[in-house]
């Protein structure tokens, strides 16, 4: 299996007998070479750091097996599962998944981490568990603004044409409130950000 994400190539492999994937950040030819090198390095570092923070907070993320900064490569546990994007396209009851999305994001925010790229391609659904991946655009922060931006992106993902189920977002928000004490402040900020977007 090989997958090309926005900035990385994901290849299935084995690591000491365990199912793993290698995530290698590829050169973006349009970037200045020195900047390109620095970006790939810093995003790898950040992803590793935030995976650890998330894990410490009990948020399901893949286990990191190995890191090679010079090769811009991360080896991590392979989660054998469709992305939430794929899973939500299948017929049937989606409320369990959608509730888990809200709770997991709430847990993450409560731990002082924002994701930075909360799309349903960056979530895997396996054995009734929601795993978050691709944390390299995230941040360790308690900023309400950053949380609001996370929620805004998540809402866009739910209301985009291929889901066509805007009420799913209400289920997400209920899960988010259940997992995060300061949820309402962040939700209010999200609405403010939406309003801003409408008039600019
Ligand atoms: N640990 C993993 N286990 C299984 N599949 C994964 C794993 N990490 C990434 N993938 C797959 O590869 C895709 C791209 O990975 P991602 O980390 O999001 O890279 P990018 O930064 O390029 O978007 C994901 O949408 C998912 O399908
Ligand atoms: Mg991704």
Number of strands: 9
CATH top level of the largest domain is Mainly Alpha
C-alpha end-to-end distance = 43 Å
The CATH architecture of the largest domain is: Orthogonal Bundle
Q: Order of strands in the sheet with the most strands? A: 1-2-3-5-4
User: How many structural domains does the protein architecture include?
Assistant: 2
| Silhouette | globular
CA radius of gyration is 17 Å
Q: What value does the average pLDDT take?
A: 93
Q: In CATH, what is the homologous superfamily of the largest domain? A: Transferase(Phosphotransferase) domain 1
Portion in beta strands: 15-25%
- Bin the helical content: 40-55%
How would you describe the oligomerization state of the chains in this entry? single chain
The CATH topology name of the largest domain reads: Transferase(Phosphotransferase), domain 1
SSE pattern: EEEHEEHHEEEEHHH
Uncertain ranges: none
User: What's the helix count?
Assistant: 6
Which secondary-structure class do the elements indicate? alpha+beta
Q: How would you characterize the largest beta sheet? A: 5 strands, antiparallel
Distinct ligand kinds: adenosine-5'-diphosphate, magnesium ion
């Amino acid at each position: 299996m090989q997958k090309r994400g926005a900035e990385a190539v994901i290849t299935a492999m084995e690591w000491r007998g365990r199912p793993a994937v290698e995530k290698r950040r590829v050169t973006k030819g349009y970037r200045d070479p020195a900047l390109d090198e620095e970006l790939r390095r810093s995003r790898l570092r950040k992803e590793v750091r935030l995976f650890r923070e998330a894990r410490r907070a009990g948020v399901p993320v893949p286990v990191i097996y190995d890191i090679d900064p010079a090769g811009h490569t991360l080896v991590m546990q392979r989660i054998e599962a469709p992305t939430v994007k794929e899973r939500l396209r299948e017929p049937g009851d989606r409320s369990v998944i959608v509730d888990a999305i809200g709770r997991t994001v709430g847990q993450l925010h409560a731990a002082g981490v924002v994701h930075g790229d909360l799309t349903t391609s960056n979530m895997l659904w396996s054995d009734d568990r929601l795993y978050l991946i691709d944390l390299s655009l995230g941040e360790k922060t308690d900023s309400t603004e950053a949380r609001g931006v996370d929620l805004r992106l998540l809402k866009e993902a739910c209301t985009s044409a291929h889901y066509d189920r805007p009420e799913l977002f209400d289920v997400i928000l209920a899960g988010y409130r259940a997992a995060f004490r300061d949820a309402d402040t962040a939700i209010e900020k999200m609405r403010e950000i939406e309003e801003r977007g409408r008039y600019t």
